[in-house]
Design brief:
single chain; 111 residues; mainly alpha; two-stranded antiparallel ribbon; 45% helix
């Protein structure tokens, strides 16, 4: 519940329209899921005010998105501990998945 209020505190409130305005980055492939979640939230809250999702084009560089699964999440955390690659750069996580077990075993063999 606390995280919901922290997120809502980042919204801009439009006093005249009695609404919250949120701006965020999201990949185009996630837009249908976000629209579905907004519709579900409107149904759950039983509000008469509809949710609107508008795509805004920008010239700013988007943030880096590294999609992971249950297996690769730990390796991505190791890579992110050293730094996050910029948008458009190659993610070194796949190479870490392959090389990390071998380097880790060499470290224990050396001890």
């Amino acid at each position: 519940m606390k995280s919901i209020y922290e997120t809502m505190n980042m919204f801009n409130i439009d006093v005249t329209s009695k609404c919250l305005v949120a701006e965020c980055w999201c990949p185009d492939i996630f837009i249908p899921k976000i629209q579905e979640a907004l519709i579900q939230a409107q149904r759950t809250s039983q509000t008469a005010i509809p949710s609107v999702l508008t795509r805004i084009d920008t010239t700013q560089t988007p943030p880096t998105l590294n999609i992971t699964n249950k297996f690769t999440r730990g390796f991505q955390a190791i890579v992110d501990a050293y730094g996050v690659s910029n948008y458009g750069e190659v993610n070194p996580m796949p190479y870490t998945c392959v090389t990390f077990p071998f380097i880790f075993s060499v470290m224990f063999g050396d001890a």
